[in-house]
From TrEMBL:
It comes from Flammeovirga pectinis. This is ParB/RepB/Spo0J family partition protein. Residues 51-141 form the ParB-like N-terminal domain. GO terms for biological process: chromosome segregation; positive regulation of sporulation resulting in formation of a cellular spore. Keywords: Chromosome partition, DNA-binding. CDD domains: SPO0J_N. Pfam families: HTH_ParB (PF17762), ParB_C (PF23552), ParB_N (PF02195).
Length: 312
């Protein structure tokens, strides 16, 4: 028979294994007395109440894994909030009597501030720093609009900072261990390629193929080729397979092209593409003349690029 400490440990593990819902608890439950167990064993995030809290008394989550909040999407949400109000309350923890910290719902909180709201509905829960980190990471991973690098970084933080193994992490987020491993491998790619993946210049399928190449220099050359020639994932996989088998398709291909960009221009092309979030193409001649092409996908995309140009 397990002793009492083992029972508490098992109980806690079972609760965490049920995902975000178990971590957050049931919003319909009333407050439970914190004196029923020793302080160290109280790991459940008890709902104190649903309340309206002054926006100025709420601070962002320092464990927030989301790296970017798109201005246009925030503006759209703010417009919706002005008309319909907050449909889903945010979740916070109490720091002091009148100060709170976001557990989940930072995007709604930002949009509410933008909409001019003074108060926002919120569930108030108890949580320590470790629980805050795990809840914030899992809550964000379950969203569909995270880019693959943000997901990979969240997985890495859960493993490193929450002391989880890949199998345990897979159980937490409802993914196979192989899926978790594929995301984590993306973090082995050089920063230029990670930025390209984050900005949508390549897909996760392209990135997964590039990870199989051992040389960073070859990875970067392949990345440039994918972006410049708009290669499909299948063609990229074929190129990678040829390279692994000892063939040199990139060198053979370059002989049939006009003068290719040298290393510095190639790096500049990557940097500009990353900065503007679109496939910049540079043409350069021996005389030092050339052109820079900045494509855009829509009027909104053009305005976004113009805004970037105006800030420099």
């Amino acid at each position: 028979m397990p002793d009492n400490s083992e029972k508490k440990t098992l109980k806690r593990r079972n609760a965490l294994g049920k995902g975000l819902g178990a971590l957050l608890g049931d919003p319909k439950k009333t407050e439970t007395a914190a004196t029923t167990e020793p302080a160290e064993a109280v790991s459940v995030n008890i709902v104190e109440k649903l309340d309206e809290i002054s926006i100025d008394h709420i601070e962002r989550n320092p464990f927030q894994p989301r790296l970017e909040f798109k201005d246009e999407a925030l503006k759209e949400l703010a417009d919706s909030i002005r008309v319909q109000g907050i449909i889903q309350p945010i979740t916070v923890r109490r720091l002091t009597e009148n100060q709170f910290q976001i557990i989940s719902g930072e995007r709604r909180w930002r949009a509410s501030k933008m909409a001019g709201l003074e108060k926002i509905p919120a569930y108030i829960r108890g949580a320590n720093d470790a629980q805050m980190l795990e809840m914030a990471l899992i809550e964000n991973i379950q969203r569909e609009d995270l880019n693959p690098i943000e997901v990979a970084i969240s997985y890495q933080r859960l493993i490193a900072e929450c002391d989880l193994k890949q199998e345990e992490l897979g159980d937490r987020v409802g993914k196979k261990r192989s899926t978790v491993a594929n995301y984590l491998r993306l973090l082995k790619l050089p920063p230029e390629i990670q930025t390209g993946l984050r900005n949508g210049m390549i897909t996760m399928g392209h990135a997964r193929a590039l990870v199989n190449v051992n040389s960073i220099e070859v990875q970067l050359t392949l990345f440039d080729t994918i972006v410049k020639d708009e290669l499909s994932v299948r063609k990229t996989e074929n190129l990678v397979r040829d390279i692994i088998q000892g063939k040199d398709p990139l060198t053979a291909k370059s002989k049939n092209k006009n003068e290719p960009l040298d290393f510095e221009f190639s790096r500049l092309q990557r940097d500009l593409s990353s900065h503007f979030g679109t496939q910049i193409k540079i043409k350069n001649s021996d005389e030092g003349k050339g052109e820079i092409k900045i494509p855009y996908q829509s009027v909104e995309d053009l305005n976004r690029i113009l805004d970037i140009l105006k800030t420099h």
